Amino acid sequence: MWSYVLSRGFCQTVAGVRGRCYPTFASVLRAFTTSSPKYGETSESAPSASVVTYSQLKTMLSNRDIQLFDVRNADEYLAGRIPGAVNIPLGNLEESLKLSPERFQQLFEVKAPGKDDDDIVFHCKSGNRSSKALDIARRLGFSRARHYKGGYSEWAEQEGK
Question: Between 15 and 81, where is the model more confident?
Fold first, then answer.
């Protein structure tokens, strides 16, 4: 919407000829290259490349090709968890991802994730907190991180727990 308004304003002030408005190359280019979120779009509706499905998660776990981080609270984690998941509550995630690799391994007893790792997956109960975790990780430079949108709820249902 704003790209249209801005392009119209630019068009009218720069390319007005005899009371007519002719689109300039810049205004047309801006209209097609400026993206804005669609109604209701959030990082939860992130591109599918950043979302891991149940079957993908199962494969990654069986191949031991995953760094799975559970961003639920400790009590939720203790009540039930996906095998191999490391609990880092969402409120502690940013500071934890900023730790040195040595300190991270000391605290969580797993190798620290690297910014270029493509096997980092966050999960929570239903996908909301893991989506926020993904945003935090991406902001910190973990550009290939993903999240399991179905969360522990879907996992428990699929596993019959």
Answer: 81
- Give the confidence band of 161 by pLDDT, cuts at 50, 70, 90: confident
Q: Which of 82, 120, 121, 124 is catalytic?
A: 124
CA distance 58 to 148: 11
The DSSP string of 18-41 is TTEE---HHHHHHHHH---PPTT-
Is the four-CA dihedral 155, 161, 72, 104 of positive or negative sign? negative
124 a catalytic residue: yes
Give this prediction's pTM.
0.71
Whole-Å CA distances, 135 to 3, 14, 128, 160:
25, 39, 11, 30
Give the span between the Cα atoms of 53 and 133, in whole angstroms: 17
Phi, psi of 148 (to 5 degrees): -90, 100
